[in-house]
Amino acid sequence: MKHLVLLGGGYGNMRVLKRLLNSSDLPENIQLTLIDRVPYHCLKTEYYALAAGTISDHHVRVTFPEHPRLNIKYGEVTGIDINEKKVLLKDQDDVSYDDLVIGLGCEDKYHNVPGADQFTLSIQTIDKSRHTYQVLNNLHANAVVGVVGAGLSGVELASELRESRPDLSIKLFDRGDIILSGYKKRLSNYVQNWFVEHGVEVVNNSNVTKVEEGALYNHDEKVECDAIVWTAGIQPSHIVRELDVEKDSQGRVVLTEHHHLPSEEHVYVVGDCASLPYAPSAQLAEEQAEQISQVLLARWNNQPLPEMNEIKLKGVMGSLGKKSGFGTMGSAALIGRVPRLLKSGILWLYKYQV
Fold first, then answer.
1. For the structural domain made of 2-37+75-107+235-300, what CATH number should be given?
2. What is the mean pLDDT of residues 1-30?
3. Within 13 A of 167's CA, how many CA atoms are on the CB side?
4. Residue 154, SS3?
5. What Cα–Cα distance (Å) separates residue 23 from each residue in 13, 18, 103, 284, 298?
6. Helix/strand/coil for 230
7. Which fold, 110-232+315-353?
8. Burial class (CB in 10 A: 0-12, 13-18, 19+), 6
């Protein structure tokens, strides 16, 4: 019996499970084990709405699949011993594997800003998003909320919070000349103007140099805040950062074209921890998982490894509250109600398929 262990029940490993358990090519001697800290798959792309208070907790939870070939184990991973082919768990016995897929996701990256890790809120895990919700929604009227980082997460959180708590004074700190400066100008202008029209203060060309309790410093100028949410960057899980393997400048694991370690063909990395020529996203993790599934099935059935085609992403969809949004599809920039409806439809379809 061969044992495949999947670390983390995120988008990547959920797609691996779906493809393998539904495949007629899955050999009878393969047993699968999924290890996760919580007893459900979490829709991380919706944590911003959970933190803002516009959706309830159960909207971001999806039950793990049930299958006679799948064992689900709950626990906290404390390390990976690649030489011994073991996963180390807190207060539990080690778990041995024949093949391993690491999908442990990411953590906030604080860029060595003093106080940022201690005095800011996060939406990187469901536990942290719940805590952020409690803090934000317990604030007094007219409280000041600083959102540091105006990427996709920061934009969606700030816009959703505007709908949830219109009484709050929200300041969105962006390093660029305009929000989402990496996108087409038409899209960036639309998003920037949406915030202006809805009373959210956008602080462009910002540089947060220090955070302390009740305040942040933008270019060393003190800005008092009743709460500060950090959405200014991510890095791979500390478990992956501690692995003695080759990594890129972002700390993500360098892989072969078949998504395994160059030195160990039985260890694969999917999602935010993998070094790929794209920004980490749920869509990217799923597309990578499709290819990992193909490679695993080929190996298990003693077949030649498939040729890996270049991963092509379909686009990006973001929300500005419940009635407006933005996105890209191919070379087209989408703004207004249509991309918001598309995002809702994609989410519904994903939950239905899972």
1. 3.50.50.60
2. 97
3. 8
4. helix
5. 15, 8, 21, 21, 12
6. strand
7. FAD/NAD(P)-binding domain (3.50.50)
8. buried
Would you give the end-to-end CA distance of the chain in angstroms?
A: 27
d(CA 317, CA 313) in angstroms, rounded, equals: 12
List, by residue range, all CATH 3.50.50.100 domains of the chain: 110-232+315-353
Name the phi and psi angles at 342, rounded to 5. Answer: -60, -45
State the span(s) of the chain assigned CATH 3.50.50.60.
2-37+75-107+235-300
Question: Is residue 240 classed as helix, strand or coil in its secondary structure?
Answer: helix
Which tens digit of pLDDT belongs to each residue from 70-92?
999 999 999 999 999 999 999 99
Q: What is the pTM of this model?
A: 0.95
3 state DSSP class of 80 = strand
Question: Which residue's structure tokens are 């602080």?
Answer: 203
Q: Is 31 exposed, middle or buried (0-12, 13-18, 19+ CB in 10 A)?
A: middle
